[in-house]
Amino acid sequence: MSSIRQALLLSSSNCHGYSMLEFAKQEISSILKKNNVKQLLFIPYAQNDFDTYTSKIKEVIDPWGFEVSGIHAYPDPANAVMSTRAIFVGGGNTFLLLKRLYENNLVELIRNRVAEGNLIYIGSSAGTNVATKSIHTTNDMPIIYPPSFDAIRIVPFNINPHYIESADPETHKGETRDQRINEYLEMSHASPVLGLKEGSLLHVNGDSLALRGVAGAVLFRKGHKKVEYPVGTDITFLFHQNEN
C-alpha cells in the first residue's frame, strides 16, 4: 500500500440520477484496487441501526469485488481499525458519529493511520464532515454532544456536504446555506469551507487535492467572495494556505 495519505470524501452516498454510490463507483473501486485492498471496514456510527445500514452498503459494494464488514461485528473497534487497510465512514448524524468515534478512541487512531499512509479513508456526508478540521459546518441537528467539535483532520479545512446554491430570493425569505456558512466564517476559529455539491467528491492523494465525481464545489474564505470550482479542478492550494 502507498505510504501517502489517501482519502475520498463524498458529499453523500446518493445523487439524483444515480443509484446508491454509483456516481463514486469508479473512484472507490480504483483507490481500493490500486492498493490491493479486498476488504472494507464500514463504520455505521452515524445511524442507530448498525446491521441494516451495513447490509445496505454491503449490497452495493460487494458486487464490485470487495467484501464489506461492519465495525460493530468486532469486539474491539480500535483493533478492527488497526487490522484493516480501508474504512468507509457512512452518513447520518454528524454529532452522533463523532461522539461514538471519540467513545471508541478512534479519532486519533484514524488520523494517525491515514497520515502514515496505512489506512485509506472513504467518507460520505457525516463521514466526510468528521474527516475535516471540525464539524462546525455540518447541516445536522446537534442531537447529542460529542466531547469536542474537533474532528479527524485529514484535511485542514472544513467541508459543507450537500451544498446547495442560495434559494430564489424572490420566493425564499429565510436563511440560505451561504448565510450560515458566512456566519461561521465570522468566528475567530473559522477555517475555509468547501461546499461539496451533491455528486461531488474530494480526492486526497498525499498532499494533492482534486475535485471528482459529477458535480463541482464552492469555496468560502473569510474576507473573500465565494469561488466555484468545476469537476476536475486541482485545489491542492487548500493544503498550503493560512487558515483564514
UniProtKB/TrEMBL annotation:
GO cellular component: cytoplasm
The keyword Transmembrane is assigned to this record: no
Catalysed reaction equations from the record: Dipeptidase E catalyzes the hydrolysis of dipeptides Asp-|-Xaa. It does not act on peptides with N-terminal Glu, Asn or Gln, nor does it cleave isoaspartyl peptides
Localization annotation: Cytoplasm
Biological process per Gene Ontology, one example term: proteolysis
KW Nucleotide-binding (keyword) present: no
Taxonomy, superkingdom: Eukaryota
InterPro entries: Class_I_gatase-like (IPR029062), Peptidase_S51 (IPR005320)
Segments crossing the lipid bilayer: none
Alphabetized GO MF terms: dipeptidase activity; serine-type peptidase activity
PANTHER family: ALPHA-ASPARTYL DIPEPTIDASE, PROTEASE S51 ALPHA-ASPARTYL DIPEPTIDASE
NCBIfam families in UniProt: PRK05282.1
The protein's role, per its UniProt record: Hydrolyzes dipeptides containing N-terminal aspartate residues.
Family: Belongs to the peptidase S51 family.
Protein name per its UniProtKB record: dipeptidase E
Natural source organism: Galleria mellonella (Greater wax moth)
GN (gene name): LOC113517114
